[in-house]
Structure formats: C-alpha cells, structure tokens
Structure prediction request, 493 residues.
Amino acid sequence: MAWYENATIFYDWIRYAEDLDEAYARHLVRKTLDCHCDTLAFCVQVGGYALWDSKVSPSYERLGGMDLIGELALLCRKEELRLVPWWLATVTGGVRRWVEENPDWQLVGPPVEGREQARHNYVCYNSPYRDILYEEVREVLAGYEVDGIYFDQLPGSCYCPACRGKFREAYGEEVPIVEDEFFVYNTAAGLPPRLREFRDACVREFMVGIRRIVDETRPGVCYAQNWVRNQQAYLARGQADVLLPEFYQKEDLVPLGLKHRLTKAYFGGGPIWGNVRHSAQHDARHNPIRGTKMLLVDCVANLASPLMLDLCAMDFDPTGAEALAETFDHIRTMQRQGAGATEVRYAALLHSRRSHELFRERFDAAFEGLYRLLFENHVPFDIVTEDAVRDGCLSDFKALVLPDAMCLADETGTAIREAVGGGLGLVGTFGTGMFDHEGRERPQPLLADLFGVEVDAIAPYDTGRRGRSILCFDCGSTTVPSTTTAAHDPGTP
Prediction:
C-alpha cells in the first residue's frame, strides 16, 4: 500500500506580514508533530512569490533569503515526516502578482449584456500562467526531496480570452455562453454538450501535464489534485494519485460521506483525502475541537485519509492540540485495522452519470434518498458506476439498486441482465431505463421485462410542481420476478 493511501496530513499556510526565519520552519514541523500527523502539506508560493530558491519566480522578500521549502524538506526528513508542497490558484493568496501584471489571466464568468463580467478569485489554468506553473513544479521536484505535490483548485475553463480562443481553435466556433453560471466548472451538469466536453478536456489536459512532469522529474512522487470530484473524478484516473475533492459539512454528515464515496467510485477506488477545516477561516480562530475530531474520524469512516487545515490558527491558539493528537492516534489504529480487513459487500447502489447530467434534479434526489435509506438501515453497500457495472463488478454483490437511473446505456443493461441471470437481486425506482445513454426516450424501459411490467404512457400530473410526470404501468397477469424482492431478504441469493 502506498503511503498516501493511509496518511494523516497537517495542512498549513504561511503567516503574512512578518519576517520569517529558520525558527519558523522548525515551528511548522513542531505543530505537525504535536498533532501526531505523519505528513506536512505546506504552500510553496504567496502572492506570486516563491518560498524556495527559484529561478522561475521572484522570492518572497519576508524570508530574508531563507529557502523555506528547502528548510522544511531537511527538517521533515530528520523527523521522519513526509512533505507535500502545494500550489494555490487564488488571486488573493497564491498568484496576486501574476494577475495584477496580466489581468487577462484571471478566471472570469460569462459576458452578459447589461451586467459586469464577474471576475472570480482564481487564475485560469488555460492562460499563459500554466507554463509558469509547470516550470515551478519542475524546479521544486528537481531541487528538493519531497514526497508529493498538491494543487488547490482546478476550474477547467472560463470565458477569458485564452479559453475563448482555445475553444474557437478546437471547434471552429465561439464558446457558448451560459448566462446563469454562478461559478464556472462547479459542475458540468446542464452545460451545452460541447462546452461540457471542452471543460472536461481542459481539466484532463492540465493533469496530463502534471503527470508528465512528475514522471520525468521525480518518479514515484505522489500527485494530489483538488476540485476533480463527484462524477467528474473519472477524469483523474491514470493521472492523479490522490484526489482531495474539498467538501465541507453543510447539513448533516450523510451528504458529506456520500460525496467522498461517490468521488472514490468514479476515481476507480483510488485514494481520497478528506479535508477538515480546523481554522474558522483564514484567521486566528479555530473551530470547536469536538467538531474537528468528529469530522476527522468521519473521513476515515468514508474511506478517506484525513487532512486537517490549520491555516495558522494554532499559531495563535493551540488549545486542543493534545485532544487532536489523541484523535490522530485513534485514526492510525483505525487505518491499520482497516488495511487488513475484507469489505462486506451486499448491495450496489448505481450512480448514472448521464442521468445526473440530463435529469439532474430528479436523479440526484433519488440517489441521495436511496443512499440514506441504505445507510440509515445499516445495509452494507457500495456506490458503483456504469463503467464498473460493464466491467463486471456486480459479481461481488448480492443486490443492485437503481435509483431513478433515467439514462442507461444498452451495454449497462446487458451487464445487469447477465448478473440477474446469475442470481443478483434487483431494485429499480420510477423512470429507471426510460432513456438511452444519449437521452433518447425508449419505447419501454430498458429493464422492464426483468420487473415484469410495461409502460402504457408517461402522463404529466400537477403541472404546478415543475411539470413532473408519472409512469402508467400495466403489469397484467405477469408474475413479477423474484429478482425485485431479493434485496429485501438477506437469505435470498
């Protein structure tokens, strides 16, 4: 098992507006050790200035000539810690100087008549800044014995001159404008097909470039990537070693775990780092210790390695360090036990990416509902994708649950039929299989014969509720196959 599959990571940021020396480097390592973490993740740039001895970018003047990354690399080796330098795409924190000198490089929203074009707090990786970033990565990997590199944020594409020109070159037409985009590449669902394809290609292209640099410069170093998450995580397969999808608790813990597990499923089961914000924001306050402890353990419960964002908070208030150290000790015990355990596989819950893209509201609600039903009733289950189903993963399960998977590919149906023929239990809800992979309506749902039903019509009801519809089924005298009830009876094969 690679080290990054079961890591405990302390994630920190440089202190602003003060002179820093070797004592500061020792302080960063001490904080990591005091929390009993095994990895220090630390930024390599601030405001567009390098925290290492760079020939690509100017050095940060508050270091007094010190090579901070070099100092951290030496100290981490001495203390048997792993070091993961990371790059930040935000204008305010990571790249201010570059964007001030090159305003066209900033990530911008759609141009809408009568409204000022939004300028987001990020640099666009399709701008010439990417070439600078790539050279910085080469320099750090070539010059320092580090264990990994990490990239915070990866927006994909925007409406800046570079993105519009790149789209025009690829497709021979202007980029389509989606006026109501609040933030570009938050999700590809709902975008015009070519724009969705373009954004996905830009994300993949960036990761291919980083992968090449790692393999050429320091093979074996872990490449961790942020913002490639949920159903988009398939884009990182074969490129990134780890995904840090950056989810935060907004409601109860169930959706948080759902997103981690969904990302892992689309990442082919690859390693996930779950981030937990100990700092309240980018300031001297930290969140309540009990909440931080709970979220750190929740990462492990949802098959992710915990990464705790301190962001200087403990520099000003180290309260609770002992409790956090105890929690990380418990987590390591959990990781050791889990590494030698065999997963109990009973139910598979299908996530259909095309159903999400074409029927987002309906499918997402059904998927979370069935996820909660299984989770809250303690039914052992895993999330599976259509690709995994077509590759034969259903042979590991006793039952398959299809939560309103409106769009299913023919090949997915074939794989499900074969598995049901071998004894797999099958549960499907509402409009499962009513459309093919391209969103074309089928004469009958793809798996209707397995359930012993026919659809007479799709009729609208209560148009005041967003024009939702109801399926009119005719079961006739057909006996519903036992496969529809197998999932409810643990004794049924």
Observations:
- The chain is about 35% helix and 15% strand.
